[in-house]
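Lab notes, practical 5.
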Amino acid sequence: MNYPDSNDLYNGKFTDGDPAEGRLASIASAEHMNAVYDELINVIEGAGEIPNHTNRNQLLGAINRLRKDELYDTATDYFATQGRKNILVNGKPQVWQNGESFSSTGYTADQWYTVLSSATCIRDPDPKKGMLIIINSDNGDGQFHQLLEQLAVKRLRGHTLTFSAEYAVNAAFRGDLKLEVFYSNNSDMEPSVNASIGHKSFTPLSSSTGVESFTFDVPTDAVGLRVALLPVSNQPKGAEMALYNAQLELGEKATRFEYSHYSDELIRCFRYFYKRDKRIHLHSYTGSTYNHDVMFPTAMRSLPSVSLIGVYGNVVALFSVSTYNWSVLGIYLHNNDKGSTSGNYVNGLIADARL
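Output from the prediction step:
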C-alpha cells in the first residue's frame, strides 16, 4: 500500500491546496479509496471477522487478535496472554481469596508473592487501590512479585515486553524503588526464578503516587519469568509502599492499564488457587460409603494440593484415576464409614496449584 501515483499530490502527500501558491487540492480517486478500504478489510477478515460498518473498533480488535495468534498453544489450548493485553493475573490487586492481612513471606493478594521482613502486607483501606506494605521496625523490607507459568513463558520467548507499575510511597519511605525482571531456564517454580534479566531504578517523590515502566526481551531459553517491584534498600519503621496496578504487555511501549472486571479476574485466579467457604455434604451412594464430587470453576494449572476446612467425619479428598484424568478439573470427597449424612461434611476446601 502506498500513496497514489497522482500529479495533484504535494511532496508526495495529499494537500488541501493553497490558492496563494496556485496549488490545487488533491482529489482522492476511486482506485485509491478502494485500495485503502481493501487493505483495512483484509486485516479484519484475516482475523476471522466479518466487516461491519457500524462497528468502529473492528480494526483495533483484529490487530490485537492477530498479534496474539503466535502466542496460542494449540496443543494445550492456552493463550500466553490469557486472551487480553495484560499478561499478569490480578494485575490490579482486587482478588484476595486467602485473607487481606499477612505478616510473613508468601502469597497475599491472588498471584502476588510478597517478600516480607519486619513488615505487613494488607489490602489497602481504599478498595479502589491495591496492596500496601507497612514496615513494622527499622531495616524492614517488603517486595511485590508475580510469577508466570511456563506455558505462557515459552510462547513469549524472544519477544519484547514492557512491565509497568503504578506505585505509591509515604513520607517515611527512603531511597529508590526498582522494577526488576527475573527468569529461569529450567523451572517456573518460585525458588528457581532468580536470574535477573535487568531492572530500572527510580527515586519516588515523598508521599507520592506514580507510574514507571521497564522494557526487556524474554530470553529464548526462558521457562520461568518473574516481575517485581521492590525498594533498593531496607526501610525505616513506618515506611509504606503500595502497588496499585501492574501490567505486562507485548511491545516496547507502556500503554494505559487494562481494565478487568472482578469476576473475570477471579476466574483467572481460580486456575492457580481456589477457596470454597461453603459447606459440602457427602451423600450415600452404596449404603456403606459417602461421596461427593467437587468440580473446580476452571481447570487448574496442575494437580493441586487440597486442604479441607472444618472436617466432620472421616472425610478425605481423593483424585480421580481413570483413562481421562480430570484431577485438574475436580476432586471427590470420600468417607468409608457408614453414618448419618449430617455427620459427613466439610465446611470448605482449598485447592492450591500456585507456582
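Observations recorded by the TA: The two ends are 47 Å apart (CA to CA). Helices lie at 30-46, 58-69, 150-156, 262-270.
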